[in-house]
Protein 1
Amino acid sequence: MQIFLTYGDIALASSLIIIVLLISWRLRLKLSKTLLIAAFRTIIQLSFIGLILAWIFAREQWYEVLLILTVMTLIAGSAAKNRVKRSYKGLLTDTLLAVGISAILVTAIAIIAILNVEPWYTPQFIIPILGLILGNSLTAISLTSNQLIESFHEQSGRIEMMLSLSAKPFEAVHEQIKAAITNGMTPTLNSMLVVGIVSLPGMMTGQILAGADPTQAVRYQIVTMFLICVSSTLGCTISALLIYRRFFNKKDQFILLQ
């Protein structure tokens, strides 16, 4: 059985936000304005992207699909940069490289080697897969970047001491890099540990609600979980290495960027 949602169904679901507004008002959380803006933007943004995707799906032009993928990647890189508390000149470039390289590489492997999509730019496959990977990668990259930059500032004395004891630049910051990458990977790993037991991921739930075969929905979810894990790991590693090089000059001297 396949159930088609009407605008009335969406309106009914939207009305449930009143419960959250009442909780916010009763506990004085001061989230009412933010919640209303978020709810409004959710409706407008998703409706707008739905119209765009419907148009692109109908046309299937490679250059239009490529434009959408580029815009998605640029927005993801910018979002990752904006979540870092201590910024520096060049951070946007670093986050764009980390997000772009990891997400595009893994998406290409998924489309060409795993799913064997022909042609590769078929929008119904490449756009949602890249979107899933970008959404998770930017979170992992921002967590890694934020912690690594903070640790460089907070532990600058320790790093300089290790350098004075003849440690190589990478040796001096290896512990900070390791901790930052682990921190960035934690949400992905936690999700993988409980998937199918505590939670049913959005992609799998959406396919089942749309009437897809549950076994196929599970297979797609397994593939996407592994793609997300690989992309997040690559993104965190690339981000950490790029930031690490920013904090050392050509003479391998540690510098604090502002």
Protein 2
Amino acid sequence: MEERWILVTGGAGYIGSHTVLQLLEGDFRVVVVDNLDNSSEVSLKRVQELAGEKGDNLIFHKLIIEDICRDLQVGDPEWKIMLLRYFNPVGAHPSGRIGEDPRGIPNNLMPFVQQVAVGRRQALTVFGTDYSTVDGTGVRDYIHVVDLADGHIAALKKLFNAKNIGCEVYNLGTGKGTSVLQMVQAFEKASGKKIPLIMAGRRPGDAEIVYASTEKAEKELSWKAKYGINEMCRDQWNWASKNPYGYGSDS
């Protein structure tokens, strides 16, 4: 089999390290570039352990991506560039079911809930309680980190197998909406902890409901999210409870 090398920038972070593990298990060879400003090399050591013999196919460089781009020739046929965006927006201007041309502002609720559960924050602020939704709070599309990683790999496979693919945009999401309070309740169930809430007014520009249209990814990438919010919260809490201050810290 032809060797398939993948350059992963920011690969030592939470999402990046999960993606690197999935790549290794998919028989890719991976070069990770990360300056470790907001991540830890410990995550990659754990990835290598989990990958077993395939962990030998991981190379890590502590670098800034600009250092590498400076040495690359524009238009070099040996390099292919892929950008993927996934839906997990908290503050987004469009409302409803979003197609492949989103103009939102991606943000992630989960880290804030997690930080309250492990004691790093006193409470979670919920912005907007009077929306026309199931419980008055905003509805968003949340995706499991493994589903996100698998979506990246599905796009990579298409990039390797297709000729002259050009630039394509794919939404990675569940295609279903979950309210802020529903997500909080799911995390409380997974963690066994009560999440203190501060109920606040709407923020300017926040949309009532935002969730991804995923038909294009399902059809063209043969990819579909497999996990729901219960699995997301379970797995996030499993990691957060063991690493309350991040990788490599016992304090």
